[in-house]
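G.,

No rush on this.
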Amino acid sequence: MSWLGLGNSAEIEIVLDAGKRKKAELKLEDGSKEKAYLYYDGETVSGKVHIRLKNAARKLEHYGIKVEFIGQILLFYDRSNSTEFTSLVKELAAPGALQRSTSFDFSFANVEKQHETYTGINARLRYFVRVTILKRMSNIVKENDIAVHTLSSYPDLNNSIKMEVGIEDCLHIEFEYNRSKYHLRDVIVGKIYFLLVRIKIKHMELAIIKRETTGSGANMYHESETVTKYEIMDGAPVKGESIPIRLFLAGFELAPTMRDVHKKFSVRYFLNLVLIDEEDRRYFKQQEITIWRKGPTKKTAAAIEADMTKKL
């Protein structure tokens, strides 16, 4: 229907200068996943825009062509009020007419990308390149998402977690985790000590809970999701018994902890210890942990020399 002016008279293709750049999975709103080129904070985003006229015999009149780099937060229950925390614009062509299919180079140098791409239950944070051909009736728009990972160094302070669960004269349990901050491929190591047991416990489990908070004030929403459950014990413990815990994080779909991102949403994680007695009463103890993404490890001079020796 483009001859009536009701359809797009051109197609836009965005090709990023990827080179040997890796790809990472992006989770979409419908739960499906796609691969996108992976970028980090401060890296340049550049590429080419190809505009192909559908009818080579007709020129494309426009009011300008622009390319944007956008960082956006979208709350699914308030789609009309998205937040653009990064917005860079470059003009590719002044108002005029395209006589033939053409291409444009673009580059956004050393772009700040301080947050990780994320799609959750109620929130999505995305980065994308958008090209717009401004027209009188309706614009022609094309978007291309990228993945962004935020890297952290190993925390200087990473104290162990020690907590107690107690019911006066009935139950006294101490549990300890080796750290309070874990990277995405880390291992949670801990131990549970039974100091007093006068109730009949039949089951104990440890769960990782992901809690997503969106909005603020009266419009604040909390959504909790159980990432995994780990059965610690099935049967009655006795006084003086201790049970080791070892939980590998690498197999789970986790994002780094995100706190109050532009006052729109947060993502936090908790270790949730649950005890169930023979009368099916449940006892809880919860502790927040921090999840972070580990950067590539720098090899020492000795390690580099060892690698070179192996190749000889």
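When you get to it, here's the other one too:
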Amino acid sequence: MAIPVMVLHSGCGNHTRSSIQQHRDHIRGALLQASGQSHLPSAGAMFLLSQALGCLEKEPTINAGCGGNLNVLGQAACDAGIMDLNLGYAAVGDTDATLTPSHVAYHMCTLLHEPKLLGRLRPRLLVGAGVRSYCEQHGLSTCDPSELVSAPATKRFKRAEAMMVEAMRQESDLKQQDEGETQSKRPHRLSKAEAPATVSATPCTKTSAAARARLAAARARSASATDDSEATRTDSGAVIDDTVGGICVSGTEMATGASSGGILFKNVGRIGPAAVAGAGFWACQKGNVRVSVCTSGTGELLMQHLVALRLAEWALECLELSQTTLLDVFKSRGIILDDSAVLGATLLRVGPTEDDGDCKHEMLALAFGGTLVYGWQDSQQAIQTHCISSGQVVCQQL
């Protein structure tokens, strides 16, 4: 029986000391539980990975499944996807049908190559009501949507909603001030008697500047709660980070996947990188070298640049992962990051050693704009967890 090698991360963002330890504990527990099922006949790499992701999806302090962020209507809407080099890729998006969306994505993958009547194709991506329909059709467990709305997520939503209302009020005030200023500047004829009573536009200009300052502050507060890094602060000061990701290698099999509750206060129907192959996760092979990547961070950036795909292609070409810098990774693939971007990733490359041809497992973790908490189980079944800060790249052999 092959000993699985696994890597998990809980998202990239601004962690507190307590949340770092909490996430490390959750990752360790997920690795232990998944590894404990490696003796099962069906325990391939994709199955074990789905079990590990499912464990993290059940934790209310992690932005996936039960701990997921809420959209603008205060509803849970989760994304998850999974793929390997053999079965391919499947994902679910914008769903409130299940506590463990990664399990549904895995089930979809297992049926991809089974024929359907009249030559119809199996779905690779299901969203919204289609996910619940699929679960009911195939006897998979479902939940009431309210079960995915946790108390911490509700508090975060109410805080973000209040900030948004305040930002809209400030913007309305600014608009009214600007309209008043415009009217005060319109040319009109005054009699000599009226001339001394003419009011300068200066006070109105000062008021507009103050309104703009208040609006900028409100927008900044709102952005801190709803920005595209998908990170939201809890009452304790910890951060609920975005996309959970994982990689598993078992024998000749390799799988990768991701799961996320998405951005806090996101638009209804928004699909994030956790359901998009190439953005949130990717697995590929060249000759006898296999690579898997799972990412976390600014969702729209990950999708625009297909970051997971580009990192995987880079790793296939890179001779020495241990000599890597963030500049090497991003610039070589045309990934442009500004100061507001958040990006984290874990990568696993498997290939023969130069000496005796034995299998070598190289793991790389990187973070930009936040900290990344991750953990792994090596080929000796030893489990470790770690946290890296923004700007760090860590490479080690498992």
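Residues 151-184 form the longest helix (34 residues). The two ends are 18 Å apart (CA to CA).

Enjoy the weekend,
O.
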